[in-house]
Amino acid sequence: MPSISADAVLEALRPIIDPDFRKSIVELGFVKNIRVDGTRVSFSIELTTPACPVKEEFKSAARERVLALDGVDAVDVTMTSSTRAAAHAAPQEAPLPGVKNTIAVASGKGGVGKSTVAINLALALRDAGAVVGLMDADVYGPSLPLLSGVHGRPRVSEERQRIFPHEGLGLKLMSMGFFLDDDAPVIWRGPMVHGLVRQFLTDVEWGELDYLVVDMPPGTGDAALTLTQQAPLAGAIIVTTANDLSLIDARKGLRMFEAVKVPVLGIVENMSYFSPPDLPDRKYHIFGEGGGRRTAEQLGVDFLGEIPIDPRVVEGGDKGRPIVHDAPDAPVSAVFREIAGRVARKLALLSEATPPIADANITWVSDAG
User: I need a labelling partner for 135 at 20 to 30 A (CA). Which of 24, 77, 201, 338 fits?
Assistant: First the structure.
């Protein structure tokens, strides 16, 4: 019986190429813990993110290639992941020391479903095996309590001066809405907004997270500028609809992130089309067709996907049951998982290069009076 060596296993796996890094999984060091026990071979493949969309393809290809070796009768492949951290400043200097990647979900205007996209994206990353937090940074119109079904004031440690996020839906959650009564108006000036956003970044005990999804306030006002300057953002996602007005505002949001050197991961077109349940192959483009993709091409960024209209998205959101959590087999949930996979892979690629430090050349102008 021919002897089986670890080198032979590695050579069998070498032709498997990671489509993003464009290198062999062997060269990238993804193959680990090779063990040979008689005619049985076991090893693990450690990916850069649990949300890798080609995870099952890698597993199947690896098993087939090693099983084809002479003397191998059984192959056990374990898929693991180690999320790569964005290349920020040293962890002890960062505002969020335990957070590997902070993702801004933004829009140039309200009404495009940005908060719904943010929470379902966070849930899709969670379902892939990542540890995820969600920060609602819209201090004027916080929606996270409604969308998540989580309410009440978070626990605060006066001695340590730390705020502990709520935990719900398998996520760590923080929102100004947790500190307000339902009918309380939020009327603040710029410096107050600046201070609150900074407190959510520095005083909340987020712990160890693979991803912190930040639901940005719409537009490019005080809170948005504070976050782009203060948060160690790994990248930003722009949410839009297909109509012209939303696309114009999406361009403004994208330019804001470019101005502070935050990588734009891509554009998501929400409410792209409606497919009747009895005609799932038919698409009605109520707000126009292809606008998000065209805008992404014009601006030189990735187009991450089209999210269809599904009445259950709105119904579930109003009841604190986001669709990825409540109906994981729904077509729109599958779209969210695809987008999450693309985002995670893009972040892994960006982690290979250290981004420039954000340019803080934005002057704060106090309100008159």
Answer: 338
